[in-house]
Write a structure and sequence with these properties.
By secondary structure, the chain is α+β, with helices and mostly antiparallel strands. The protein has 11 helices and 8 strands. It folds into 3 domains: 52 residues, no CATH class; 61 residues, no CATH class; 80 residues, no CATH class. The strands form 3 sheets. It has a 4-stranded antiparallel beta sheet, with no helix packed on it. A two-stranded antiparallel sheet has the order 1-2. The protein is extended and about 80 Å long.
Length: 250
């Protein structure tokens, strides 16, 4: 690490994002493979690495997860907190204890065996909210949609459409929730792009709005819950009688 830091990161490279930095480091490492070491018989670093790698033990069957795990409880607002940042989860998990995996660029929220949410790593004071996590709750209590933060944070285009909708239909909360359900079927970018023209035409119906979206087969964006165990090494539990034998020997 020290050699790589001194060789590849001095002076500090100016890059716009992590992806560019990673590409820069990968390129430097690939160049380093071809560097010849005179004291090693003129062999390249890549050749020596291939020879050494042949003697390595195989990697574990379970991939390593570069994350730290934290026990968290889902609040009444369907939020979990980590390092002063709130992350949403589906509302049906309110009150439950779950686990949060913090990666370098995102977080995942798990039950014992199921991933229930994923968010980009947030900044303190700015909650990371996913509209799909709240659609079921809004369906049950549509009156909350007027001032729901998760809706207002969809952006200025959605806020303008929402204000125009309720100017025409002041109490049609359920109808606006029906429009929000389109976010589960279509990509958000397509919906948001269609809203200004729909607003100008007075189109405030979910079915009519869906016909304004690109003529493609809607992709079901329902939050799926794959029944898979979170990454980690498998652990086999010994039979309880073995502990009795240890006690007797002691």
């Amino acid at each position: 690490m020290g050699y790589a830091r001194r060789t590849f990161l001095v002076p500090v490279p100016e890059v716009p994002d992590w992806e560019t930095l990673n590409a820069h480091l990968r390129h430097q490492c690939e160049q380093e493979r071809s560097r010849v070491l005179p004291r090693r018989g003129g062999a390249s670093i890549g050749t020596l690495w291939d020879q050494e790698r042949a003697a390595f033990l195989p990697l574990p069957p379970q991939p390593f997860t570069p994350a730290t795990w934290w026990p968290v409880r889902v609040s009444s607002q369907a939020l979990v907190r980590h390092q002063q940042v709130a992350y949403s989860v589906p509302t049906r998990y309110v009150g439950q204890r779950v686990r949060l995996a913090a990666f370098w660029d995102h977080v995942e929220v798990w039950t014992l065996t199921t991933q229930i949410a994923s968010h980009p790593l947030g900044q303190p004071g700015t909650p990371q909210l996913d509209l799909l996590h709240y659609l079921d709750a809004l369906q049950q209590k549509p009156g909350a949609v007027r001032n729901a933060r998760v809706v207002r944070e969809l952006g200025t285009v959605v806020r303008a459409y929402q204000d125009a909708f309720f100017a025409v239909h002041p109490t049609a909360y359920g109808a606006f929730v029906d429009i929000l359900w389109l976010f589960r079927r279509f990509p958000a970018a397509q919906i948001i792009a269609a809203l200004p023209a729909a607003q100008a035409a007075g189109c405030f119906d979910a079915e009519a709005l869906s016909r304004r979206l690109p003529p493609t087969v809607p992709a079901d964006r329902t939050l799926t819950e794959p029944t898979r165990v979170p990454p980690g090494p498998p652990v086999s539990q010994p039979h309880p009688r073995l502990y009795d034998q240890l006690t007797e020997e002691a």
